[in-house]
């Protein structure tokens, strides 16, 4: 059963697709499993291969530290929102009749939260990218593309 989505939800979906593509282009996906004592943080793996100056390391460390602090500060709120979302979904599923509009609103709210999260990630990658020298930027993009390829192959079971 196909229905016309309100313009706002359609626009949200388009924005989410655009953000998803942007995040995929610069997402920190693992190239390979780290060796013994290696770091599982894919972004750190990429950055470790860029021959960063001490100033670049310091600035990137501060960016990551700030992002981590913000994420930690929002952890409880986000957890409560996820639990609330699950309860609302459960109520929709178990209701005597299906409320399509309520489902669309709930989906749109979830998509908006996902888009916000992805936007923050893309912004972080943008800031890091623009701290790099041109040669480092080129290598950064190559490493990220290799990660995407590797991730895609892993997801397809190759």
TrEMBL record:
Q: What is its main location?
A: periplasm
- Annotated region described as Disordered, given as residue ranges: 66-86
Taxonomic source organism: Corallincola platygyrae
Entries under Pfam families matching the protein: LTXXQ
Q: Which CDD domains match?
A: CpxP_like (cd09916)
Under what name is this protein listed? Answer: Spy/CpxP family protein refolding chaperone
Q: Which Gene3D superfamilies match?
A: 1.20.120.1490
Supply the alphabetized keyword list.
Periplasm, Signal
Location of this chain's protein in the cell: Periplasm
Q: Which family does it belong to?
A: Belongs to the CpxP/Spy family.
What are the top taxonomic ranks of the organism?
Bacteria, Pseudomonadati, Pseudomonadota, Gammaproteobacteria, Alteromonadales
